[in-house]
Amino acid sequence: MLDIELIRKNPEKVKNALSRRDPSLVDTIDEVLDLDKHRRELIAKVENLRALRNKKSKEIGHLRREGKDTKASEEEVRKLKEDIENLEEELSQVKESLHNLLLRIPNLPHPSVPDGEDEEDNVEVRRWGQIKEFGFEPKPHWEIGEKLGILDFKAGATLAGSRFTVVKGLGARLERALINFMLDLHTSKGYQEVIPPHLVRPEILIGTGQLPKFQEDLYLCERDDLYLIPTAEVPLTNLFRDTILSEEDLPLYFTAYTPCYRREAGSHGKDVRGIIRQHQFNKVELVKIVHPDTSYEELEKLTTDAEEVLKLLGLPYRVVELCTGDLGFSASKTYDIEVWFPSQGRFREVSSCSNCEDFQARRMNTRFKDASGKKRFVHTLNGSGLAVGRVLAAILENYQREDGRVEIPEALRDYVKADIIG
RNA sequence: GGAGAGGUGGCCGAGUGGCCGAAGGCGGCCGCUUGCUAAGCGGCAGAGGGUUAACAGCCCUCCGAGGGUUCGAAUCCCUCCCUCUCCGCCA
Questions:
Q1: Which residue's alpha carbon is at the shortest distance from the C1' of B49?
Q2: What is the pLDDT confidence band of residue A375, given thresholds at 50, 70 and 90?
Q3: How far does chain A reach from its first CA to its final CA, in angstroms?
Q4: Please, which positions of strand B sit below 7 A from a protein CB?
Q5: CATH code of the region A4-103
Q6: What's the fold here for domain A119-421?
Q7: What residue spans in chain A does CATH classification 3.30.930.10 cover?
């Protein structure tokens, strides 16, 4: 959520920044400004009346003790009360409209974010690794996995429908190995391992920005009004909602393995084969809660921490900086890490590392007390470290051999207790 | 799921209709005293919002959340949420 005071005091600055994402947001800001003005006018009126009512009521108390008649005063206050109630009703409606509007406005992009409309305009910042030359036509991971008997798409469809896959045997063990490998790496770098709930309340999703705008992307357990998490970012970032941390507590680093559940509404026809886009997938997440002055250094570090996984696995990748049009709702700046898929001849996203600045902190009410005792919002960051299923697919493709077998990357062999699948 | 107890400031805890934004204690901050420390003494200090040049003043709101009764609610009534204890069920 954007700071209403910032919008009020620097409307042009806010409009300029937001229009880099979407020019229509300029009108939304004007709407916000109108509502905010109306809101403050109503507050002034209501409060004046309340002050008067409080004064009169106190007088009644004094008069009573002196044994005087208070009928007239009581009638006067009763009338005041009606006026107050009417204005309060109007005020709460205005407040609600304003709040709902603010909750649907995305974060301001950082000045360094390149302009652009979609992923075509993202800017590559670096590459790592040597793309392997195969002496044969590299197969897609779904063919490799099916043939090895480790990916069962038919069983997944039978059990739960499309975009669900059953992983078996050494494939399942490889997936578990990847999770352990990633967690071990991150915890060795100071991230605290967490096992969070996989079901959360609506307000938790408002905190990180998935609600109210992206409801249709989420699975909802209606009887209990709980949502399945689309990423561990949601419970981890919300760990300190409604709290005031002390400056020495910062920075906080967390990592968690969780399944992620996404309805993938509106992505019909995209990546229909394989395990690139699933309704349920495993992910190891990195979350940082940091001092505002250091959040951009922390973003660089977070990104390299995620990259480290691919380096150790020997998977070629590149890092791109998202343009304004591709930036997520809550993010000010985002780096995507994309791993090489030989069968597709292109890089595919396995991580998205973002600095949300105080956008989520304001929604969650997570603050800290600085040296002078002033309360400030923290900055929050998150990044995949990494998307496990996609990395598994990348391993199948990059480590495939002509005979259909797949080598296990060196770094995973102790975990998998095997050096080849097939 | 059943029965009961409870949710008050950073923490503990008093407060059953006005003089309560809230006693007292602990912790915190600032002084004084004091070889140092500790103890002691005195003082300061809740949060959010409106107005404003202002972290000055004034005003409003907040005692788990939301409604209600009343001229007036931390206090009375209703609903919900959460925590704890016991029982049941259960990985």
A1: A43
A2: confident
A3: 51
A4: 18, 47-51, 59-61, 71-72
A5: 1.10.287.40
A6: BirA Bifunctional Protein; domain 2 (3.30.930)
A7: 119-421
